[in-house]
Amino acid sequence: MTFTSNVDSLFLSVVIWSELGWRQFAIVNDEKLDRNVKISYDIIQRAKKNLTKENIDMPKVTIINGSPTPGSRLTAMIELADQLLQKQGFEVNHVNVGELPPEDLIHTKFESEAIVKANGLVAEADAVIIASPVYKASYTGVLKTFLDLVPQKGLAGKIILPLFIGGSLAHLLSIDYSLKPVLSALGARHILGGVYAVDAYIARTDQGGFEINEELAARLEDNIAELAEETKRRVQYAALK
Ligand SMILES: Cc1cc2nc3c(=O)[nH]c(=O)nc-3n(C[C@H](O)[C@H](O)[C@H](O)COP(=O)(O)O)c2cc1C
């Protein structure tokens, strides 16, 4: 297929543009292909392939830790999730709500530097993990003070994975009845089932670390794998739109 005239060239540009969208169009041009002579549908397909395999930015996950206690067993779940995601090629960022300035949280200071930075990490994420211990049959109050500062619809378009840990199984459904309505109000529409653990599944070691039992580790692996797959699919789809 050969293109010689300016009309052909213009037509071709429109075809590439409509086929691939702005970003891919730029990539095709970056390759300095001579649009007048040799761009064909095959090249478009190759550009698409390159984009999905190599040119898409590393997908990002932000983990919001809603525990006010630094040494919480929740840390073990978060660390495992972080490792698994990094292995899958994700950039992982963290918002530790317990480390944000209490004044900013209590007085809902949307403009504070720390809150703006934390919200930036949420905004740029393709997926968000919301982790919390169960306090009084719900997620923690500290986590709510941060969620109140997330902009309206701040979770729209993101894949969400809840991770909860409680002293007992009695509040197994707290993810559904307490967290999910809030996530929904923040615009989240793709919320994965989530992982509920109990303290007994995570032992503290003499060295100050944690040991997660096999059953919980397997559930975490399954859920992270699902999060990774869904997120990559969504990122690739968005890039090819
Ligand atoms: C203030 C407070 C309230 C709690 N309320 C509940 C509860 O309602 N249901 C539950 O299963 N566990 C509850 N727990 C237990 C914690 O969810 C559980 O121990 C969690 O894993 C925190 O562990 P950590 O001590 O390693 O941070 C509560 C703990 C605290 C400190």
Can you tell me about this structure?
- It is built from eight helices and eight strands.
- The mean pLDDT is about 85.
- It folds into two domains: about 5-55; about 60-240, Flavodoxin domain (Rossmann fold, 3-Layer(aba) Sandwich), CATH 3.40.50.360.
- Strand 7 and strand 8 form a beta hairpin.
- It starts with 5 loop residues before the first helix and ends with a helix.
- The longest helix is centred in the C-terminal third of the chain and has 27 residues, at about 215-240.
- Helix 1 (about 5-30) runs parallel beside helix 2 (about 40-55) and helix 3 (about 75-85) packs across helix 8.
- The strands form two sheets. Strands 1, 2, 3, 4, 5 and 6 form a six-stranded parallel sheet that branches.
- The protein is globular, with a radius of gyration of 22 Å.
- The protein has about 240 residues and is an alpha/beta fold.
- The structure holds flavin mononucleotide (FMN).
- Flavin mononucleotide (FMN) binds near residues 165, 171 and 199.
- Flavin mononucleotide (FMN) binds near residues 69 and 133.
Order of helices and strands: HHEHEHHEHEHEEEEH
Compute the number of strand runs: 8
CATH class group of the largest domain: Alpha Beta
Strand % is 15-25%
Number of spatially distinct domains: 2
CATH architecture of the largest domain: 3-Layer(aba) Sandwich
What is the fourth-level CATH superfamily of the largest domain? Flavodoxin domain
Rg for CA atoms: 22 Å
Helix content: 40-55%
Largest sheet: 6 strands, parallel
Bound molecules: flavin mononucleotide
